[in-house]
Amino acid sequence: MWIKSPDQRLQDSLSQEITPKEVFEGRRTTLRKLASAGLILNATGSTLSAYAQSSSNVQGGGKLPPLPGAHSNVSGAVLMEKPTPYADASSYNNYYEFGTDKADPAKNAHTLKTSPWSVQIEGLVKKPMKITLEDLLKTHPMEERIYRMRCVEGWSMVIPWVGYSLSELINKVEPLGGAKFVEFVSLADPKTMPFVGSGILDWPYTEGLRMDEAMHPLTLLSFGMYSELLPNQNGAPVRLVVPWKYGFKSAKSIVKIRFLEKMPATAWNKAAANEYGFYSNVNPNVDHPRWSQAAERRIGEDGLFAKKRKTLIFNGYEAQVGQLYAGMDLQKNF
Amino acid sequence: MRAWFLNPHAKKLCLLLCAVPFFLLLIKTINDQLGANPAEALIRSTGDWSIRFLCLVLCVTPLRVMTKTPALQRFRRMIGVTVFVYVSLHLFCYAGFDMGFDWDDIVKDIFKRPFILVGFMGWVFLGLLALTSSNRAIKTMGAKRWQTLHKLVYAVALLAVIHFYWMKSAKHNFEEVIIYAIILGALLTWRVVRFLKTKMAPLVIS
User: Fold this and answer.
1) Which residues of chain B neighbour A289 with C-beta distances below 8 Å?
2) Domain A66-325 listed as CATH 3.90.420.10
3) Rounded to two decimals, what is the model's pTM?
4) A223 contacts A139 by C-beta, under 8 angstroms
5) Which of A175, B71, B77, B199 would disulfide-bridge A179, Cβ 3.0–4.6 Å?
6) A92–B102: do the CB atoms touch at under 8 Å?
């Protein structure tokens, strides 16, 4: 899929022209491309793809334990766009349990206790369980997924996440036939999260997906980013990443996953149903009541006077997820 | 203190103080100290400073009357024009950094979104006040009509609070809005009470 898209090739060659470091990264990318396209002989190919997979394109902060992820073969999993600098991705966050200003989570989230941690899985499943973080980490090999992240507020980033498809975990717990939706419940601990208890949202933060959305291979259960464990402000120790939906759909610091027959209420939908729908798929044609969603500002890249870039339908993942919504009125089901 | 207010340099100092936030933002912009999203930071902080200076200019008359310091009146015009300057910067940042100076889009956006329309109306009203802020304008218009026109500042205060409230509404994060609403509400209430007192006073005597 990388070689097909003319846009992405353009991005790729542009980023290679900027600095010697980019050239270096571009080389690795090229190797990856060649290796995965099978253009290199078998024996050489495996060595080269191993090299290409050996580390992320971008440096993490160097303060958290490493969590490398192997190259992912899921379609759309490795975006050929320049990742956002780690400093921006880890300092400009919406995590309202730690404050409403985007600088607040990085300042306040050090109080979050991520160990011990476990996730309760319940509802319409054959094997309900309370699974520890250690077991979750071992459930499936880690992959690196370089995704676009589009916030409903009109800005975007490119983040190299580390994790595995949520479907791997779902298959393990064997959902029953009646399970049509999955609900994700985030931690709400007033002792460590200063804004839990404030009237901004109805705590705990809850999010939900339709079963087919949850089972989509792009839907990621993430434990790390930039080849390191997740920083607290980014939703440590385990979060969801749904790249074709606005960022708030990707619940952080998950403590409970429930399998349901009925569509669950979600935090932002409860707060303002006219502004935030259950689906919240990235859609340049459906405006937020107070601003247009047609364009976005790429954090760390688009300068002050740069025109914002066009937002893509399904955040650019239409080829992968468009069929999930075939026949649905996306203006109504926003 | 009162002598100080009458000092010929006092106005220059006032101007300098009014310009401090502008220069701080300028320095931060040049040094790339506005965080991960400089455009948003500039739009928000120019908006914040607009409403702060609006509160300040509406403080002048109550302070003058309550402390019996007529000299304070000397600073009102300058602070008022400062409000207009910061709101203009706020509009410029929105038009430039958010809308990329795409005038068609900007006009559409203003009329499509009540939240932006309300802010824009506030700017237009303030523009009328700034245009008529010279002594000559007062003379040409006549003091009475000038005073009536400049009561528009109370409408601007109301529009500012509505604009800010709508901006924060979906996030249910009203702390800041409530603080500004209380300050502006108190300043307007003081004027209403004063107006009623002066109206009622002759009646009571007779």
Assistant:
1) 113
2) yes
3) 0.81
4) no
5) A175
6) no
